[in-house]
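Supplementary Note 2. Why include the ligand at all?

Several targets in our set were suspected to adopt different conformations when bound, so apo predictions alone were not considered sufficient. For every target with a known small-molecule partner we therefore ran a joint prediction. The input for flavin-adenine dinucleotide is given below.
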Amino acid sequence: MSFKSVVVLGGGPIGLMCAIEAKQNFVKKVTIVEKRQAYTRTNVPQLQNEIVKHLKDLGLKDTLWAGRQAGDSVAFFRIEKALWDKAQQIGVRMERGYVIEGLIGRDPRPDGFYKSMTLVLKEWDDKAKASPKYGKGKTLDCDLLVVASGGGAASDPVLQKLGFTFEKLKAKNYGAFGIFNPDPPGGSQTDLALKTQVAGITKSIVPQSGKIGFSTPDHNYLLVTLAGCTKSDFKYLQANSEKLKELLLAVGKTVGTAVLNEIKQVQKNLAVFKIAVVRAKQFYSDKYPAVILGDAAVTPHPEAGSGIGTGFKGFQELQKLFQALKHTHRSEDNTALFLKFNESYELHVSQKALEGTIIILRNLTNMLETFKADVEKFHQAAKGKALKKMAEDFKGIIQGLIGEMAEERGDAEGFRNMLNGDNNKLKHNWDANVGKLWQQISLTYAQVKQLTADISLLDSRLKEIESKIQFA
Ligand SMILES: Cc1cc2nc3c(=O)[nH]c(=O)nc-3n(C[C@H](O)[C@H](O)[C@H](O)COP(=O)(O)OP(=O)(O)OC[C@H]3O[C@@H](n4cnc5c(N)ncnc54)[C@H](O)[C@@H]3O)c2cc1C
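The joint prediction is reproduced in token form.
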């Protein structure tokens, strides 16, 4: 076996798992390049059983769930810290506060494929979100680069140099999260009548599907899609954290039995964000020894509750690739092994991308339905033929778009079923099938944006919530 060193770009949960696996079962030298200075993320993932099992197998049960049931909700920063402790114990190194700025291919094979690389690292200033002008640099040699740098990977020029290309679904959703104080001793309950009333109003803004409230030892966490939210509502919430807080507190009051009363005083305790689906077209490089996985390969829709899950599928495929590469030499043409990794992972990535597509279309349809209901109210209240005619025309256009999205959603569901059945039909033909559908959706979405961008669906509903609840 001639592979000696692995570099993992990105020390998030997936990158850390890959680094531990590489060190335990593949090569002697493993280095993570991570730009963040510390693990602080308070977001909470849903951990599938196989991930819980893997974390237990790594010996992290007591660190992560001391006194609680394995698999209970726990924040990202705890998972990342536990994995990093483990990685350090077994000798993984980390270049913290660095990014990869460039790379040089080394030892080319006759077919032009480089057997290894020298990576050029540059210091990263987390606060400035840039490399300092006179920042330190260093180099790192590697025989295999594992890219696990998360959702922003598509805009990284180094990945373009490696030959990774990406496809993005133009239609998007908006989401929000809030970090709340943990349950007080004995708990407190929102008055049932109030809960029901508020749930009625918030439902058009935040349709609740899947698990959205999480209770952890550190805090309670709420993650929602803002389906009844236009571009102008999003900008308004982005600029107005008090209103966002009101909305999240109101939604919190309607969530299960979790007590979501007080926003916790931590950095980044609430935020709105855009939800987009981006996927890599291929998961290995044709020119350099490099693979891509995790959120960098496909960004999940948070509502599907499986962010870390798809990354874990990629990790499992990487475990197999490590095993296969162990029995070869870097000088050999290992394309078939990388292709196998690619084909197996493609199935999971396509599933995730289609799942996101279906959810985005469903939420946009909800948004249009909310808009239609507002136009209907306007129609009924309107005096004069001209105004009534205008409202009717509007309703017609909205209904047309709802119809288009229903068809597109049907197609996306059809492709997803194809994947679950005879996946080969789709696996080898993403562009002709889903790629084409994504283009169609982008045309529909352009019309939706044109129609709704400057409209507020939120304002009147927020006022209604305010009148029901006295906020601290
Ligand atoms: C706002 C937001 C909220 C989310 N909330 C949830 C949630 O509630 N539940 C859930 O399950 N999932 C959530 N996710 C998704 C979840 O974070 C990921 O699915 C999960 O962390 C697996 O990701 P990963 O390890 O592939 O990438 P990440 O966790 O994104 O890790 C990537 C790592 O790479 C580092 N990095 C990036 N670029 C570079 C570079 N150029 N050089 C060096 N280092 C780099 C980053 O600092 C980071 O540490 C959320 C994502 C976002 C953006």
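Residues 335-381 form the longest helix (47 residues). The chain has a mean pLDDT of 90. Comparable summaries for the other entries are listed in the accompanying table.
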